[in-house]
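hey so i finally got around to running the thing on that chain from the lab meeting. sorry it took forever, my laptop kept dying and i had to restart like 3 times. anyway pasting the input first so we r on the same page abt which one it is
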Amino acid sequence: MIRVISILACIVMLQGCITKIVTVPVKAAYGVTKGVVKGTAAVVGAVIPDGDDDEKKEEKKKDNDD
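ok and heres what got predicted. didnt touch it at all, straight out
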């Protein structure tokens, strides 16, 4: 019975430490992944233009003709 109580007490006291041990690497991995994804999206956008500018130009021409 004393073992169970002591284990529960340790769990409660060390909860903040365990949270730090888990969240710090997760935040670091998230930051690195976020940067890589943004960089990849920029490169893909530069290599493969989506043509939004062409569509906007066509809409402006239609609006001006009316």
